[in-house]
Structure formats: C-alpha cells, structure tokens
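thread: overnight batch results

M.L. [08:02]
morning all. the overnight job finished for the chain we discussed friday. pasting input first so we're all looking at the same thing
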Amino acid sequence: MQTEFDMHKVELHLHLEGAAPPTLIRQIAHEKKADIDGIFDEQGHYVFRDFEHFLAVYETATSVLTEPMDFYRLTRAVLDQSATHGVIYTEAFLSPDFCGQAQLGPWREYLSAIQEAAQESEKKHGIVMKGIVTCIRHFGPDKAKKAALCAAETAGDFICGFGMGGAETFGVQEDYIYSFDMAQEAGLRLTTHAGEWGGAESVRQAVFDLKVERLGHGVQTIDDPQLLDEVIARDITFEVCPGSNIALGIYPDTHSHPIEKLRNRGVNVTVSTDDPPFFNTDMTKEYVALSRAFSWGKEEFTALNKTALNAAFCDKATKDTLFKRLDTE
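M.L. [08:03]
and the structure it wrote out:
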C-alpha cells in the first residue's frame, strides 16, 4: 500500500553539484589523483563546521568535476537517487562557473552532457529534469553577468530559469539586477536565494529589486508580517528546504521550523532537499520529518506537490503530463 512517503514528488530546489554522492566525488578524485580527503569524515560523508566552511567544502568537492563527462556521471547519479525517493520532476540548479568557468563555448559542451544524462534518466526512471542556471553571489556581480549570458544563450525547453545561490551576506540583491534583467529578457523565469541567512531584508530586496517569482528558502520572511503580506499578494512561491535549514543551524529542529506557519498564513510553500548528501537528507526523510512534526499526511503532501508543479518553470505540456501522474497515482 502506498504511503505519503513513497508518493510521487516534485522538487524545485536542488543544486546539481550539491547533490553529488560522496562515493562519486571520491571515485572521480581517485581517477584524477586529486587529494580531497579533508572534506570527508571517517564514514565517508561530507563534513563541515558552519555555513562558510560548508561553502568551502562544496567548492572543493566540485573542483574534481572538470570535464563534461564528469557532469554526465554526476547527473545520472543524482537523478538515480532522486527517482529512488519518488521524485518525478526536479529543477536542478546548474552553475556555469563550475562548467568551463562560465565561458559560453565550454558551457554548451557541459550542458549537452547534462542534457544527455537527463534524457537517459527520464527513459529509465520517468523522472523529468529541467535546469535553472545560477550565478554564485559571493563570486561577485561581474562573474554573475557571465553566468547570465550563458543562461540567456542557452535558454529553451531545458534551461527554463535563472537564479542566484551562494552566500547571502555578500553584497545586496540589487548588485545583480543586470544579470537578472538579461536572463528575463531571454525569456527565463527568476528565483534567488533569500531569507535563509540574510533575514527578511534579503527577501525584500529579492522581491522589489530582482522581481523574482520564487524564493530559495525565504523562511525568515516569517519575522516581517508586512513583507509576508506582500509575498502572498504577489503569489511568490517559497522553495523551502527544512532539512538544510536544520543541518546548518538556522532552526534547531523540524518542529521549530516555520514551514507550517508560512503555509497556514497563505504562502505557497514547497519542499526540497537543497544539497542532500551534505545535510544527510533526501525527499523521503523530509516527508517523514514533516509528518512527525506537524502530523502532515497524504492530503498535505499532495497539495505541496501541486503547489510546486504550479510554480515550476517548465512548459505547459510538461506540467499537464506531470499533473496527470500526480492525479492518477
């Protein structure tokens, strides 16, 4: 009998490199004779002290992914894992900075490898993947422009969005308006990380300066009722990653997490894993934790998945097919 934990799931906030299984990263490092042992604990899991150290470990792990075939292998491994936990649609954040240093020619080669892997995974598992190009905030506005150009030049069925990840404490959202405008002019839809570390003010900047329609995390908006009203009025969707927020110490446990308060308040909330192996999570674990903390069941999770699919950046035909899968499961 199917339960709410093995039902079909829709995920909107997954960093492709951040979902890399440690075994794959160690294997590629071994093949390239790269010494990155310091980023793993004795059990072979990623290990870090705090958010800044997490970013450093993340970039060290990513450093071994130096050619398109590495990203082919990465994509296959990540989608294999996601499908195991019932994910039928995922929007993965792809960073040109990690794919040929945001140079358009190499980026096209990396993207081709990622797409090939995604197509093979769809045939094998039925999981659909689309890409959201992300600039890295702490790499600065100039590098963001290069990432935005890569996004604009490869916008289409597969690359359907543009966003920004990285350290929220670096600069302000408006520093990146040029890049977001470029992406939007190319027909890409917009999201950005905000309200994870930068407080409600970072959300305010994202909403009013970048004019995004989704927010990565967004949870600290709970501290500003007026801004919350604005977010609801604009129909902005939150890509909430409870396990990530808890692993990084933003909230002590799931029961303390504001996702239920946000949902009850009328915010469009969804559930994602962010960087699952770094935070010892997956979509099944997220559902189990939320069910235990808030007594959520199949009705609540079905509503969350439909909210996520409504907010997805993919085309209407893809959405229609996926809605049928949600409705007939």
